[in-house]
Please model this.
Amino acid sequence: MGVFERMQRAGHEQVLFTSDPESGYRGIIAIHDTTLGPGLGGTRIRNYGSDDEALVDVLRLSEAMTWKASVAGLDCGGGKSVILADPGTIDREAVFRAHGRAIESLGGRYHAAEDVGTSPGDMASIRMETSYVTGLEDRSGDPSPLTALGTFHGIRACAIQRWGEPDLSGRHVALQGVGSVGLHLCRLLSEAGVRLTVADVDPERTARAQREFGASVVSPERIHAVQADIFSPCALGGAISDGTIGELGSGIVAGAANNQLAEDRHGDDLERLGILYAPDFVINAGGLISVYGELRGKDAAWTRGKAEAIHDTLLGIFRVAGEQGVPPAAAALRVAQERIDAARRNGSHRGSVSPSSGRDIAPHHPRSGPAGGADPKP
Model:
């Protein structure tokens, strides 16, 4: 399948392939939809197996950012970028400055943020070349704590939906991926009285979770099959696939990872199996909320409150799913698309608007229709 066919299939507006031979930088920036505002989303760095693998990743991630922003009631669109490199062998400042120049060339249609493999320091390098970057150390900083906070409150919403009350004390969570977001989420869950089983490709991370939270440790290949109340994917995408879905040991899937469903049909499969799924781009929106707050000049109280409101947004999605007789993943997509369609009908396309001039849209309550309102990172 060609690049244009892939773009058109999901409705992408723009994909920029860019390189800087001197630094070894190779990057792809994907802008999915700017109806609600400029594309906002993280930059991740990975040693991809092929250019095609990187393209597929950035297209899926940028599309998810559109839905994430829409459901969360944010005035921004969907964008994402990837850098194709081994993070351990590059001159980081040179590579991220080259990435900053590529972002600058887009004239504000895309704003970068931190993502898998990147840090506030890398954002500072990007800032040396462009103002279209968020997640800076002296501003909102690392979005991981807000991602974890929103995910935690989303898990409490799942508990209400499944068990009728939000108390997680005594529950068992199998958590995949103890990176920045996963570790913060472990802490919140542990403080709520949750028993933890964790897995990660890095044994130092699982050792820390074991030491600090008394977590049990299993292999990354078997974490999904642990008999627990909740399976929480907080690593890379594709945790729910043909190979894992029949082995799931939990009645709830609720985690911070992006693109948890390897294919859209797996949302239907979870519904048929009686497993409650918290759509990833709803529950993990805390990171996007964090950098959006920086972009719009919001204070910490606003961003925290917005992340905590993911609890109510997710309960609204579950209500829509029940009323319309569709799985939660399908309901979330409908809610997101309705808000975007309403903006188009009202002639309020915001793609070329200055990022500092946006107005706020009230937090979306899915039951009330489209009038108002994303791996572990944004």
About this structure: The mean pLDDT is 90. Residues 144-283 form a domain with the Rossmann fold fold (CATH 3.40.50.720).
